Amino acid sequence: MRYMPFAPFCTQPRAVFAFALIQNDLVIAYERERDFLSAPKAYVVLRASFTDEPVMTLGNCQLNDEQWDALQQSPHGIYFFENTFDADNHPLCIFYSATQLLELQSATLEKITEIYHQPSVSEALIHFLGRA
């Protein structure tokens, strides 16, 4: 299990992901942690590119017990697992937050941008898609 070096997730109870599938890429937005609550909200936008057919699971994951235990003891964030039980041995990327679990298979991630001063992660994603 390897922690991906993107901005840490917001740990507030209502912090969630928003995503949109555009052609063969998945655009994912999440609220990043703020140093103090009076700081403006900021959202990170990532692109997940797939080597095969896009495979995404929300709320469930294919980790074994040892991997799941390690994930639950880790801070919320994005993790990459190289050894999965997938028949084709695809790498597994897990977005792990307090309220959601998003699993991507065969994906590479890149940070696209950060967006400020939007009221929600959905609005931030819509704002980004409107500019793209």
What would your notes on this structure say?
- It is a single chain.
- This protein is mainly β and 132 residues long.
- The protein contains two helices and seven strands, in the order ββββαβββα.
- It has a seven-stranded antiparallel beta sheet.
- A hairpin with a 2-residue loop joins β2 and β3 (25-31).
- It is globular and about 40 Å long.
- The mean pLDDT is 84.
What is this entry, summarized?
The chain is mainly beta and 132 residues long. The protein is 14% helix and 44% strand. The chain has a 7-stranded antiparallel sheet.
Which class of secondary structure composition applies to the elements?
mainly beta
pLDDT < 50 stretches: none
Q: How many DSSP E strands?
A: 7
Number of helices: 2
pLDDT averaged residue by residue: 84
Strand content: 35-45%
Largest sheet: 7 strands, antiparallel
Strand arrangement in the largest pleated sheet: 1-5-6-7-4-3-2
Rounded to the nearest angstrom, the distance between the terminal CA atoms is 33 Å
Helical content stands at 10-25%
The gross shape turns out to be globular
Radius of gyration: 15 Å
**String of helices and strands:** EEEEHEEEH
